[in-house]
Design goal:
Blueprint lengths: L1 E6 L4 H11 L3 E6 L9 H8 L3 E5 L5 H6 L5 E5 L5 H14 L2 E6 L4 E6 L2 E6 L7 H7 L3 E2 L12 H13 L1 H17 L5 E5 H13 L4 E7 L2 E6 L5 H5 L3 H13 L5 E9 L11 E10 L2 E8 L6 H14 L4 E6 L6 H10 L2 E3 L1 H5 L3 H11 L1
Parallel strand pairs: 1-2, 1-4, 2-3, 4-5, 14-15, 15-16
Antiparallel strand pairs: 5-6, 6-7, 8-12, 9-11, 10-11, 12-13, 13-14
Length: 369
C-alpha cells in the first residue's frame, strides 16, 4: 500500500495534481490547523481516485505522524506548509529513505527525490473547469443563466460591437435609454417607447437591425421586439458586446480546457448569502489547471482596473492564475503598460483586440509566466 502525505497548501490545485500523478492508494493531508477542511471536497474526491484523511500536526508531532503511517511505502509532497514543516519532512525523508515530491505546474514537471537521486517526469494535469479551479480556492460559482450567443446569434454581437466602436459615448447613451425602456416594459414581448427615441437613435437602430424582429414607428409610438429575447443584454449594458467579442477570441482558439462568460462568484463558497462578498468577472478560462481571469474595458479606464484584475485572479486562482485586462478604448497608455508588466498583468490594448490577437497573446504570456 502506498500513501502520499501532503502538507495542505493554499494552492490546493498542487495538492490535487500531486495525488493525480503519484497515484497513491491513500492520501494523508497534513495541516497545523485542527479545524482544517478541504473547501473543494467534491472536486478533490472526483480526481483523487482514492480515500483520504486530514491529520492535524504540530512541529513536535510531525515526524512521529509520518513515521507511524501504516503503509508499505510513504511519499511526501513538500510544496505546502511553512519552511519549518518542510525542513522536518525533508529530514525525515533523508533518514528513512522516503520519496520527496514536488509538482511544478508552470514547468509541467513532477520532481521526485529519493536519497541523492533526483528525477523529473512529465506532469499529468487534469483538465479542470473554471468552476472547479475557483472552488479549489474557496470560492463558488453561482449557477445563473447566461446566454452564449453562437452561430447566427454572433451577428447580433458583432453588429452591437461595431456600433459601439463607431461612437462609444453615443452607444453608452443608447444603452442607458434601452435600460430605462426595459424597466418600463418589463414582462412585455413588444416594447413601446415615444417616437422621439427612434428619431434620437435611428442610426444605431439601423446599424443593429438584426437584433430586432420589429423596429417601427406606428401612430407616434416606437414598437420594438427582439429577434431573440436574450439580445436584451446586448443593448442594455454598455460593455457586454465587447465581453462577448473577447470571449469569442478566446473560445475560437480551441486552446483552453474551459471558458465561461460573466461569471458570478461568491467569495465564501458554500451556500449563497446576499451579504456574502461576490464578484462578477467578465471572461474566465482554464488551461492545465491554471485560471485565466479576463477583465474587459470597452471605454476609458484607469490604473485601478489593473490592480482589480490582479486581485481577482489571485483570489480565485491563486498565484498561478493569469490576470488579463482587455481594452477597447482608442488610446495607448505606455504608463499603464509598464504598471501592468510590473504587477504581472497582461494588458491587451485596443489595436491588438481589433486584430483578434487576444488568445494568441494570452498563450504566449502563459509560456513565460
Amino acid at each position: 500500500m502506498k500513501v502520499l502525505a501532503e502538507l495542505i497548501s493554499s494552492q490546493q490545485i498542487l495538492n490535487l495534481v500531486s495525488a493525480v500523478n503519484r497515484k497513491p492508494d491513500k492520501v494523508v493531508f497534513l495541516s497545523p490547523d485542527p479545524a482544517a477542511f478541504l473547501p473543494a471536497r467534491e472536486v478533490m474526491e472526483k480526481y483523487l481516485g482514492c480515500p483520504y484523511e486530514i491529520t492535524h500536526y504540530t512541529p513536535e508531532t510531525l515526524e512521529q505522524i509520518i513515521q507511524e503511517i501504516p503503509a508499505d511505502e510513504v511519499e511526501i509532497d513538500v510544496h505546502g506548509g511553512d519552511d519549518f514543516a518542510i525542513a522536518i519532512l525533508s529530514a525525515v525523508a533523508k533518514k528513512t529513505g522516503m520519496t520527496l515530491c514536488y509538482p511544478g505546474l508552470t514547468t509541467k514537471t513532477m520532481y521526485t527525490r529519493k536519497g541523492d537521486e533526483l528525477q523529473k517526469t512529465a506532469l499529468e494535469i487534469p483538465s479542470l473547469t473554471v468552476k472547479e479551479i475557483i472552488s479549489l480556492y474557496g470560492g463558488a460559482v453561482r449557477d445563473l443563466p447566461e446566454a452564449v450567443f453562437e452561430g447566427d446569434d454572433r451577428n447580433a454581437v458583432h453588429a452591437c460591437n461595431a456600433s459601439r466602436r463607431y461612437n462609444n459615448k453615443r452607444w453608452a447613451d443608447f444603452c442607458q435609454e434601452m435600460s430605462n425602456l426595459a424597466k418600463r416594459n418589463e414582462g412585455h414581448t413588444v416594447w413601446k417607447a415615444p417616437e422621439a427615441v427612434y428619431r434620437e437613435y435611428h442610426s444605431i437602430f439601423r446599424s443593429i437591425s438584426c437584433v430586432f424582429r420589429q423596429c417601427e414607428v406606428k401612430e407616434g409610438t416606437l414598437l420594438l421586439e427582439f429577434a431573440n429575447p436574450e439580445y436584451k443584454i446586448l443593448v442594455t449594458d454598455t460593455g457586454v458586446p465587447f465581453e462577448y467579442e473577447t470571449y469569442y477570441q478566446v473560445e475560437d482558439s480551441g486552446y483552453f480546457d474551459d471558458i465561461d462568460i460573466r461569471v458570478n462568484i461568491d467569495w465564501n463558497g458554500g451556500e449563497f448569502n446576499r451579504k456574502d462578498p461576490n464578484s462578477e468577472l467578465d471572461v474566465m478560462a482554464s488551461k492545465d489547471g491554471r485560471l485565466i481571469s479576463i477583465s474587459c474595458k470597452s471605454g476609458k479606464y484607469d490604473q485601478q482596473a489593473i490592480y482589480e484584475v490582479k486581485t481577482n485572479a489571485i483570489q480565485f486562482g491563486g498565484e498561478l492564475a493569469i490576470p488579463v485586462l482587455c481594452t477597447d478604448y482608442e488610446h495607448r497608455h505606455s504608463e499603464y503598460k509598464e504598471k501592468a508588466e510590473t504587477l504581472g498583468v497582461l494588458l491587451i490594448q485596443f489595436d491588438e483586440m481589433r486584430a483578434g490577437k487576444a488568445a494568441e497573446l494570452i498563450i504566449e504570456w502563459m509560456k513565460t509566466h
